[in-house]
Design brief:
Blueprint: E1 9-14, H1 18-29, E2 34-40, H2 44-54, E3 58-60, H3 63-67, E4 74-77, H4 84-93, E5 97-100, H5 108-121, E6 125-127, H6 135-146, E7 152-160, H7 174-177, H8 181-197, E8 200-208, E9 230-237, E10 242-248, E11 261-268, E12 271-275, E13 282-287, E14 293-296, H9 316-319, H10 323-333, H11 342-361, E15 365-366
Parallel strand pairs: 1-2, 1-4, 2-3, 4-5, 5-6, 7-10
Antiparallel strand pairs: 7-11, 8-9, 8-15, 9-10, 11-12, 12-13, 13-14
Bound molecules: nicotinamide-adenine-dinucleotide (NAD).
Nicotinamide-adenine-dinucleotide binds next to helix 1.
């Protein structure tokens, strides 16, 4: 299902909401190897708007029309969480390459069936784990792999947002979102922790819900939130390293132009290194007896090698997200697995599910990593 030489890859967006507009479509528009060929959303008014916003002619409210169109090579699924499994499985059965938003499903059983369907169909499958693409994250991974930090001992992640306490829409109901902060935010940090340090083999976790969210932003009443707005995990990696994660959407004073506070660090036997979202082109690095010092991320980590994206253009904490689409298209054209794949989404989901189980059962949970 790859395009003939010279023709751009035809991608369809399924779910034309916030995240598609924020980075999936801008990412495709930057990439001469692909085009937005069609858009599907259940909201007809939004589809009309996207025709102008994105310069797309073909729009539909029926995903089946996209899946049965032989001219479509791949899809980006960016709909509410509960719709991902059925859409991804249908896409795979129709031979479409798939990038799907996180969390891939509402639980690991659903995600396993998505992984199976994509593998059986032989299509490229990718989980939209955005923060793996941040320049300082890519550089941090290089430093770990190169041994520059020595033996990694501790991983530590903080993701603090200062969001309004009004309704989260579909996100605040268990049957639509699955969980709150845990599936929305912390799952990314589970993913990049394993990407940096290898598999996690046991965890102890907790979640809590403080904000009732019984009103929409315009003051209309709605049913209260059923999901967490704080989540935390401590865990052990197979390597022997330890991990600590905390996420909240209720950290007053942590707005930071909407990007919030993100801090993820590794303390190794030789050095500590820190990634922060709001300054993604700078890494903090420190050695024994000294302080953390900012260092510029070297040019080769600012973007994928052949991407035409100019790292100096745009808000640094936004523009690296365009590289997700670059990776998806590259994997299709190079006939290789996308990174991160549905397997990574599945592995992170197993740990997110275990966090809820741990909280409910009041104990540590051993992690059985999924089969590849
Ligand atoms: N990777 C990231 O950094 C990141 C950031 C934000 C959101 N997300 C994820 O992206 C997904 C979408 O989030 P969002 O903030 O864009 O939500 P959103 O509510 O703004 O957009 C979702 C869109 O999907 C449409 N939709 C609903 N059901 C549909 C269906 N069955 N078929 C087609 N369209 C349908 C809705 O009308 C809406 O326009 C979620 O899974 C979320 O977790 C990921």
């Amino acid at each position: 299902m790859s395009p003939s030489a010279g023709n751009p890859l035809n991608l369809a967006i399924i779910g034309a909401g916030l995240v598609s507009d924020y980075h999936h479509v801008p990412g495709i528009l930057l990439d001469p190897r692909a085009r937005v060929a069609a858009v599907c959303d259940t909201d007809e008014a939004l589809l009309e708007k996207r025709k102008t916003d994105w310069g797309v002619e073909k729009v539909t409210t029926d995903p089946g029309e996209i899946f049965s169109d032989p001219g479509i090579d791949g899809v980006i699924i960016a709909t509410p969480n509960f719709t991902h499994p059925a859409l991804a499985i249908d896409a795979a059965r129709n031979g479409k390459h798939i990038m799907c938003e996180k969390p891939l499903g509402l639980n690991a059983t659903e995600v396993a069936s998505m992984h199976e369907a994509a593998k059986t169909a032989g299509v490229v499958h990718m989980t939209a784990f955005t923060y793996r693409f941040a320049p300082s994250m890519r550089y941090l991974k290089h430093l770990v792999q190169n041994g520059d930090l020595g033996q990694p001992r501790h991983f530590r992640s903080q993701r603090f947002l200062d969001l309004p306490e009004t309704s989260w829409g579909w996100r605040q109901y268990r049957d639509k979102g699955g969980a709150g902060d845990l599936f929305d935010m912390t799952i990314h940090r589970i993913d990049f922790a394993q990407d940096l340090l290898g598999p996690i083999n046991r965890i102890c976790g907790s979640v809590a819900n403080f904000a009732p969210r019984t009103e929409t932003a315009d003051g209309s009443p709605c049913a209260p939130s059923e999901v967490d707005d704080w989540s935390a995990i401590i865990g052990d990696f197979e390597s022997g390293a330890t991990g600590v994660w905390e996420g909240t959407t209720l950290a007053k004073g942590y707005n930071r132009d909407g990007f919030g506070h993100e801090w993820a660090e590794i303390n190794g036997s030789e050095a500590s290194a820190v990634y922060r979202l709001h300054e993604p082109n700078i890494l903090l690095l420190g050695r024994h007896g000294g302080d953390l010092e900012p260092i510029e991320v070297p040019a080769e980590f600012l973007k994928p090698e052949d991407s035409p994206r100019k790292p100096a253009d745009g808000e640094p904490a936004t523009v690296f997200r365009y590289d997700l689409a670059w990776e998806f298209v590259s994997a299709i054209l190079e006939d290789r697995d996308a990174i991160p794949s549905f397997w990574d989404g599945w592995s992170a989901q197993v740990i997110a599910d275990a966090t809820l189980d741990s909280r409910e059962q009041g104990r540590w949970i051993d992690i059985e990593q999924p089969a590849r």
